[in-house]
Amino acid sequence: MRKKRIVVKIGSSSLTNDKGEIDQEKLNDHIHAVAALRKAKHEVILVSSGAVAAGFARLGYPSRPVTIKGRQAAAAVGQGLLIESYIEKFSEFNIIPAQILLTRNDFSNRDRYRNAFATIMELLERGILPIINENDTVSVEELTFGDNDMLSALVSGFIHADQLIILTDINGLYDSNPRVNPLAKKLDVLEDITDEMLEGADSAGSKVGTGGMKSKLLAAKTALSLSVPVFIGHGNGPDKLLQILKGNGDGTYISNSEIGSINTSRQWIAFHSESAGKLFVDQGAEEAILYNGKSLLPAGVFKVKGTFEKGDVVEVFGANGLLGKGEVSYSSDDLKKAIENRSEELRSDSFVPSIEVIHRNRWVKV
Ligand SMILES: Nc1ncnc2c1ncn2[C@@H]1O[C@H](COP(=O)(O)OP(=O)(O)O)[C@@H](O)[C@H]1O
Ligand SMILES: N[C@@H](CCC(=O)OP(=O)(O)O)C(=O)O
């Protein structure tokens, strides 16, 4: 089998018990499976939850804390315990783990995004195993990824992974929550995540997990849009991840061969950038950027809203609403001037559009 780059996301329920401790047996199982993948020369990146679940008991909480500060304190204790266990157990296989803690902000800031990317690449090149978790201590609600499922999907796209494996406490996606509906049917292979599936997926998870199956489906949808195939399910033994890669996993496979890959800087524009302004374009421009793969030229822009600099990201609107986002080659002041000049020039019928407002390589449709 060709060497692959694989992101493995391990949920809290697959690492810890209900009492707030790391389940050494479950952890050992994952360690052996990751070591087997590495032995087969695949590159592995772990996204590991479990900090809160591994830490709350030591702080004297009877169950997963409900307050943000309680969860953050539990994560601060639990993350150390988790990494300690990973380092110790992986050392038996001569695998060196590296801890990476990220927030949503680290992705929306372009420099931090590039730095995180460069660090992960350097680690992989040196044969290190990156273990990523959300930086819970500084993540207030609006700065979180929502859950580690979405974090694993964004990381998979970011590093152009060949496969995202989401390990959880259930063997895949069912058409409704099987813990509530005993007649729920398992879905083995999917090409897309539909609204109906999202409705059938509960956001209630296990006692220690967050987001339930719904967050996994939303993550899978994002991974698919980034052209990364996804597996959701579980398994046992050192062979489980290799078997999943071979298509023999106990879970749901989600992939769509029609989706093309999207480069890292366009991913940043699509998923992480904050918009600094709005452009309104005419019908000709709409057709050019949506259907003909063209750059947006000043001639097609009739209104500019907001104050932005060259290099910022703006939203582009057509007659029926938002069309997409792109990086502008003009500041708002210069673009407004270009439009005003154009009106004057048009009157004299000699207007020649200068450089593009948004280059097609810096543009993503919604
Ligand atoms: N449609 C569904 N199919 C499968 N599981 C579902 C569905 N809806 C909700 N669930 C629940 O999602 C749980 C897994 O989510 P969660 O506890 O957040 O996992 P993790 O800790 O691995 O992230 C399952 O144990 C199951 O109870
Ligand atoms: N950063 C948190 C992750 C919480 C989370 O998303 O949990 P899960 O639903 O088990 O993947 C932790 O480590 O506890």
> How many separate helices?
12
Major β-sheet profile = 8 strands, mixed
Low-confidence stretches: 347-352
Helix content: 25-40%
Q: Write down how many β-strands occur, each being a DSSP E stretch of 2 or more residues.
A: 13
Indicate the overall shape.
elongated
Strand coverage percent? 15-25%
Broad structural category: alpha/beta
Strand line-up in the sheet with most strands: 3-4-2-1-5-7-8-6
Domain PUA: 277-355
InterPro entries: AceGlu_kinase-like_sf (IPR036393), Asp/Glu/Uridylate_kinase (IPR001048), G5K_ProB (IPR041739), Glu/AcGlu_kinase (IPR001057), Glu_5kinase (IPR011529), Glu_5kinase/COase_Synthase (IPR005715), Glutamate_5-kinase_CS (IPR019797), PUA (IPR002478)
Subcellular location: Cytoplasm
Protein name: Glutamate 5-kinase
Architecture overview:
The chain has 366 residues and is of the alpha/beta class. It has two domains: 5-264, Carbamate kinase, CATH 3.40.1160; 274-365, Archaeosine Trna-guanine Transglycosylase, Chain: A, domain 4 (Roll), CATH 2.30.130.10. It is built from twelve helices and 13 strands. The chain has helices at 24-39, 51-55, 68-91, 104-108, 110-125, 148-158, 195-200, 212-225, 240-246, 264-272, 283-290, 332-347, and strands spanning 5-10, 43-48, 97-102, 129-134, 163-167, 189-190, 230-234, 250-254, 278-281, 301-305, 313-318, 321-328, 358-365. The chain has an eight-stranded mixed β-sheet, sandwiched between helices. β11 (313-318) and β12 form a beta hairpin. The radius of gyration is 23 Å and the shape is elongated. The model is unreliable at 347-352 (pLDDT under 50).
